[in-house]
Design goal:
The complex is a heterodimer of chains A (about 250) and B (about 170).
Chain A (H helix, E strand, L loop, with lengths): L1 H22 L8 H28 L6 H6 L10 H4 L5 H22 L5 H29 L3 H14 L11 H8 L10 H14 L22 H9 L1 H5 L6
Chain B lengths: L7 E2 L4 H4 L12 H4 L2 E7 L2 E6 L8 H14 L4 E6 L12 H10 L1 E2 L4 H8 L16 E5 L7 E6 L5 E5 L4
The chains are: A mainly alpha (about 250), B alpha/beta (about 170).
Chain lengths: ~250, ~170
């Protein structure tokens, strides 16, 4: 049971933190259309997160709610990958981070829909429709920026180069991953790696971008060891619950 | 529509369900939208199964509350359960609903392939809800709500929403 709980959180924390990062851009997008797009994507991810947390709360041995799980954990208890917590910097970063995550996310959802766990399968099946739309949007922007002006090309290349080191962690297997794969519930993400890098490289090449070398990777988020940005995200995210514990809207 | 997609709704509850609308598209009732998957009465309690159009759709909480209020007015308690499977499809919007939506100014979803041709290939297939011309272009893949994209007509110059195909 503990493994299932941790497994759900390892998927949901990624979507929660990325939704939070995208939410920061509300009202700050470069154009009205992209602003709306980013918050729409954020909302989809948050909706998925809620479904996961509600399920996790239901199976947890303690009396927990989805809000407790989202807001009342300490940094080391969050299991999201380093990629999703990276700051927004500029629009190129936002799109690069989104693209590098979307390709992985869609592959994960496509496998998770066949999970033996009917709850996870249902969230994934619903999520596929949304995530494939996200991936279309971010791939499109990678191509537009890469194949745009010299400046847009150099900015998106810089963002891809910077964020590349966080991609390998997506395919690390944790104890919960291994246990859940054995039960037919979880997805063997390590087996998705080559396919992922092929798909990503294809889009980058089409966008006139260089595919970075696969080395010097950073990892830790899946085991709760986060980058320095995570504390700031949580202080924003948790502010209301920490200040007024158990408050409700 | 396959057999599992068919909702199980008790006939005599339909008049009340019809009074509850989608807060974002008020001309559509929850029945037109196809989000009610089951509605049955057992021992004076109405059991309703509701499915979201999109995972994060904020209208779901409002719809749930509105359903409870509508049944409370006739002295009945309604219990709402949110279900995710089978996932909602834009094909579940009734023909009546599609017509009302168009009159309201939202273009109806195209077929899955046509939808892709428009959103990815830039083809001109979406009909302007104002003048009926197909000389329209996509302004934004995401619109005012998760379920819509924003279009503009190149003939009458009016912007309008397009309800995305979700299958």
């Amino acid at each position: 049971m503990n493994n299932l709980y941790n497994y759900i959180l390892s998927i949901a924390d990624n979507t929660l933190i990325l939704a939070q990062r995208l939410g920061e851009l509300c009202g700050h997008g470069p154009t009205l259309e992209t602003d709306i797009a980013l918050t729409n994507i954020s909302l989809d991810l948050l909706g998925q997160t809620r479904s996961y947390y509600q399920y996790a709360a239901k199976i947890s041995s303690e009396e927990k709610t989805e809000d407790d799980i989202a807001f009342m954990r300490i940094e080391r208890e969050y299991k999201n990958v380093l990629l999703v917590e990276q700051p927004n910097e500029h629009f190129g970063y936002v799109m690069a981070r989104q693209f590098l995550f979307d390709v992985y996310h869609l592959m994960l959802m496509e496998k998770l829909q066949h999970s033996k766990d009917i709850n996870l399968a249902a969230v994934a099946k619903k999520g596929i429709k949304e995530v494939s739309y996200h991936q279309r949007f971010s791939s499109d922007w990678i191509k537009r920026l890469g194949d745009g002006t010299d400046e847009s090309n150099s900015k998106i290349q810089e963002a891809i180069d910077e964020l590349w080191r966080f991609t390998d962690e997506l395919f690390d297997m944790t104890e919960a991953d291994n246990a859940m794969v054995e039960d037919g519930v979880g997805v063997d993400v390590s087996a998705m790696k080559e396919d992922y890098y092929n798909q990503v490289s294809e889009v980058l090449k089409e966008a006139n971008l260089k595919v970075p070398e696969r080395k010097n990777f950073m990892r830790g988020g899946k085991n709760g060891v986060h980058s320095e940005f995570m504390g700031y995200i949580l202080s924003d995210l948790q502010y209301m619950q920490r200040t007024y514990p158990n408050m409700k809207w | 529509m396959t057999l599992t997609d068919k909702p199980n709704i008790q006939q005599d509850l339909i008049p009340i369900l019809e009074t509850v609308s989608d807060p974002e598209i008020p001309v559509l009732s929850v029945l037109d939208l196809g989000v009610i998957r089951e509605a049955i009465e057992k021992n004076d309690v109405i059991y309703i199964k509701l499915t979201p159009t999109y995972s994060g759709c904020p209208a779901m909480d409002v719809i749930g509350d509105d359903l409870k209020t509508a049944f409370a007015e006739i002295g009945k308690e309604a219990k709402i359960e949110l279900i995710l499977a089978p996932a909602w499809s834009s094909e579940w919007i009734s023909e009546n609903g599609l017509q009302k939506m168009e009159e309201y100014g939202i273009a109806r979803p195209l077929s899955e392939t046509a939808d892709k041709d428009v959103l990815l290939g830039g083809k001109k297939l979406v009909k302007c809800t104002n003048c009926g011309s197909k000389n329209t272009h996509l302004v934004s893949q995401f619109g005012s709500t998760a379920c819509k994209a924003l279009f503009k007509c190149d003939d009458c110059q009016e912007p309008f929403d397009y309800f995305k195909c979700l299958k």
